[in-house]
Amino acid sequence: MKNKIVRLLILLLIVAGNLSCDQLSKSVVREKISYLEQVPVAGHFITLTRVENTGAFLSLGQTWPYVLKLILLIILPVATIFAVAVHMLRKQTLSLLTIIALGFIIGGGTGNLYDRVLYGRVTDFVHMDFHLFQTGIFNMADVSVMTGTLLMLAELILRMRRRLSNPAAGPV
Q1: Is 35 helix (H, G, I), strand (E, B) or coil?
Q2: Domain tally for the chain?
Q3: Is 125 exposed, middle or buried (0-12, 13-18, 19+ CB in 10 A)?
Q4: Phi, psi (rounded to 5 degrees) for 166
Q5: Please, where are the H alpha helices in the chain?
Q6: Which phi and psi (to 5°) does residue 41 adopt?
Q7: Contact of 144 with 22, CB cutoff 8 Å
Q8: Which of 17, 21, 95, 139 is most buried by a 10 A CB count?
């Protein structure tokens, strides 16, 4: 997509939508659900369970020293989000699907980063248990990042298919 203003507007709308959904849902959970309280949504399959995570994905790094958390969970994500956003605005050949995917990833990453900076922890609250498949407790920012990642994977598969059907098109 070549128009820089259109790319920026699409990116901002997707980031704002994901960030708003994440922060609104966390705000409601913090206000309405007590720590470790379990609220069934769909029987035992989907439960809201509020936890406060001072680490990263699946509580990784929860026991790390403060300086390591600062570097790996705040400084590095800020730099990464900034670098990805700048790259997106400069590179005119990114597809619409890639822009949307990166918007989801930036929106979700920013949501959890905002919590870490403001509260020193991230509120997680969704747990799914389908007997054979069970998740950790996560939030809407995590859903945004996973959605963006799946969209990027779809984009990669589409590119590979195009490349295989038209070898003269160049590298993937």
Answers
A1: strand
A2: 1
A3: buried
A4: -145, 80
A5: 4-32, 66-69, 76-90, 96-119, 140-165
A6: -110, -45
A7: yes
A8: 139
* 171 within domain boundaries: no
Q: Kindly state whether residue 154 falls inside one of the protein's structural domains.
A: yes
Q: Give the tens place of pLDDT for each residue, 57-92.
A: 777 888 889 999 999 999 999 999 999 988 888 888
Per-residue CA distances from 5 to 10, 12, 128, 152 (Å): 9, 10, 39, 22
User: What confidence tens digit (pLDDT) does each residue in 23-63 have?
Assistant: 999 999 999 999 999 999 998 899 999 999 998 877 788 88
Buried b (16+ CB within 10 A) or exposed e, 141-159: bbbbbebbeebbeebeeeb
142 part of the active site: yes
Domain that holds residue 15: 4-166
Residue 172 maps to a domain: no
